[in-house]
Design brief:
With about 300 residues, the chain is an alpha+beta fold. It is built from 2 helices and 17 strands. Strands 2, 4, 5, 6, 8 and 9 form a 6-stranded mixed beta sheet that branches. The N and C termini lie far apart (about 210 Å).
Amino acid sequence: MSASRKQLFFQIFLLLITCRHISTKTTGPTPSPAAPISPLPTEVRSVILKGENHTEKVEMLNPVELTLECTWTGNMNKLPNISGYWRKDVDEIENSRLTVQLENEQYNLKRAFRIDSEEKLGNYSCIFGDKAKIDFVLEAPQISEVRDKPIVSYVGDYAVMPCKMDDNKPKPSSWNWYKLNGTDKEKIFVAAERYEIKNEEGKTKLVVHNLTEADSGLYHCEAVYNISKTTSKVELRVITFWEPLKPFIAILVEVMILVAAILLYERSQSKKICTAENGTNADQTNTQMQGENNGSEGSSSMRQRKV
């Protein structure tokens, strides 16, 4: 009995150790559930197409759940159904092709898009049977004011470069300025001593003090919205004070050369006239001398005859 009891106690002891080992064994951290996608405000844009093509510009300020609705009234040959699909820029959107039924003498296409980043902007097109197309151009508000001529200032002076949105466009949340160095953009900070940035809602100004010729070049102003950015360029040309005088100096040099050429020509002509006059006087003198000689010879011959 004592041996059997010892064996029983030993088996119970092993069982307790095994159960404790199994309960304390770790299988790694439990993966956390994926964060739910936060809902976005919804917006709907609808276009009715009566021809073959139409472009609708959609200004985007914030991330949004955008529903695009296309209605095409068709052409003369209205088929009971046609093929329709969606395209982003130049690529057809996957699983967007379907058969569109003719309802109330028109065809309808609708699709929702989650526009939550700058990469989601672009050209979204609904296409009806390769015969009609509506383009929705999704972009941030564009800066329409573009300067064709550069801003000109002088070395050592200062320059003011303005940039603004149209009054009827949404105001950006902030502005940034950049200077182009070849293919790179260098951001301009207010902390720099020579730079000053003045922002007023829908417009901004960059002031550059103590200009040097190295400040010449292209500058970009950037309007920042929650979903994207839009830019415009301003050209600055820094010149020395001698620069405006160069055309006048060139004209003065040309005038001086022309006057010198005229004087040299007149002098050469006067020399020719003097030479011609001297030659004529010499001929006249020779003729007179020959006449006098002939006259003296005739007188002497007459005297000889009389003798």
